Amino acid sequence: MRVRQVFTVVILAVGTLVSPECYQNVSSGEARKLNDFTVDFGSFREKFHRKYEVSSEEFNRRQQYFQNATQRHTFLNSFSTDPQSAEYGINQFSDLSQEEFKDLYLRAVNDRASLFSGPSAEGLPAKFDWRDKAMVAPVQNQLACGSCWAFSVVGAIQSVHAIGGAQLEQLSVQQVLDCSYNNAGCNGGSTSQALNWLNRTRVKLVPHSEYPYKAKMGICHFFSQSHAGVAVKNFNTYDFSGQEEAMMGHLAENGPLAAIVDAISWQDYLGGIIQHHCSSHRANHAVLIVGYDTTGDIPYWIVQNSWGTSWGNAGYVYIKIGGNICGIADHVAAVFV
Asked: Domain range spanning residue 72?
């Protein structure tokens, strides 16, 4: 069942954005400790290395956003009646307005996908995680750039390449950001459009070390066809809504899946299994689904995000299987290299 909730918050004028460097060097454990007691704004600023001056206009604005966030957390956590339920609280995004958060981080475009019409999956294991096979690269941080769509696509490609027998290697997100001309770089993009571009042009993705990430769009650096890299041979994109078991089979057979979701409530996520607070009607963020687990009371997808390891479950989010929570099954792409 899809659950849609309306959050009422005070949205003030958008001002100077917080520097992306402020989001680094804080562990998920430290972020959770902030929620073990009543947190004041001073503790938050110290923990997350905020530099704005006390009593300045920016200080007052950020403090108001922080207070709005604590009010949201009370509402969001009121639904968390199960020990495995998602927990919401203070994290590195708590002094951003919801509008700023969306403008910075939720920039994926959701193209329409064909409804999956293949066979139902049979004989699936109760738990499957590509990380257990060392086929998933470490969590990355997109910083203050709307490049989630590129991280999602590159994450799928580098995993599938490794599943095929190659060494797992971090490939260049910046290459996709700069060169996928049918997308808008840090201003957003579509996983399908990026995969279409890679498939049509046969552009080879080079290692991250050759084309490092800069969190901003630059001039495309072209490489010759003889240059070593990984090319996309094909891909498919499906709508698995109502067929999440088939989606589990698709993941186990083909590798990690690039998906576009509604992540509006993820600004406040700390950990646990999301079961409420998002729908499939406002898809806005691209992620990488790396596994699933149906062994507990609440079956869930294992999803790698691109907001660094200080966010969520060491950079991961768990989403309940069934009911298309967060639109997890609406737009799912498998890659072949």
From this structure: 20-105
Number of domains in the chain: 2
Asked whether residue 57 is domain-assigned, the answer is: yes
What is the per-residue pLDDT for 225?
Answer: 85
Q: Both 211 and 98 in a single domain? A: no
Tokens 């994290």 -> residue: 91
Quote the pLDDT of residue 81: 78
pTM of the entire predicted model: 0.88
- Decide if 305 is catalytic: yes
Query: To the nearest whole percent, how much of the chain has pLDDT over 90?
Result: 79
Check whether residue 74 and residue 121 sit in a common domain. Answer: no
82 part of a folded domain = yes
My answer on whether 130 and 218 are in the same domain is yes
Average pLDDT, rounded, for the chain:
89
Q: Which of 20-24, 114-118, 246-250 has the lowest mean pLDDT?
A: 20-24
Among the listed residues 183, 285, 313, 324, the single catalytic one is 285
Is a pLDDT exceeding 80 seen at residue 302?
A: yes
Residue 2 within a domain: no
Residues 134 and 278 in one domain: yes
Q: Using an 8 Å Cβ cutoff, are 117 and 242 in contact? A: no
Kindly tell me the burial class for residue 227, based on how many C-beta atoms sit within 10 Å of its own C-beta (0-12, 13-18, 19 or more): exposed
Q: Which two tokens stand for residue 7?
A: 């959050």
Say yes or no: 54 and 121 in one domain. Answer: no
Q: Which is the catalytic residue, given 145, 148, 179, 278?
A: 148
**Same domain (yes/no): 145, 245:** yes
**Of residues 65, 106, 155, 80, the one with CA closest to residue 263:** 106
Q: Is residue 291 part of a domain?
A: yes
Question: Catalytic one among 91, 110, 305, 324?
Answer: 305
Give the mean pLDDT of 258-273: 96
Judged by DSSP in three states, 235 sits in strand
Q: Examine the residue annotation and report whether 285 is marked as an active-site residue of this protein.
A: yes
Mean pLDDT in residue range 127-153: 98
Pairing of strands 257-261, 269-271: unpaired
pLDDT-derived band at 74, boundaries 50, 70, 90? very high
Alpha-carbon gap, residue 7 to 165, rounded angstroms: 47
Which pLDDT score, from 0 to 100, does residue 89 have?
95
Asked if 167 and 82 sit in the same domain, the reply is no
